[in-house]
User: Fold this.
Amino acid sequence: MGIIAWVILGLLAGAIAKAIYPGNQGGGLLSTMVLGVVGAFLGGTLHAFIATGSLQLANTGLSLPGVFIAVLGAMLAIFIWQSFNRRSI
Assistant:
């Protein structure tokens, strides 16, 4: 997948995940893109693990199922990021 497709997938998946996930995640355009790309790898790897039973680094394509998996992976990335960065008052 080309770099332009990665940027488009990252922006799309990150923006959808931030809109769906409850709470304020903050961050700008770059963090949304990085979140989406990380989500695409995380979701693709989990999808490959569920489908094949072996752990392999995979990514999703720029298609409707690929965007769906990338959004789920980005939501998981938001959850993991927020669980590591919880502030106690």
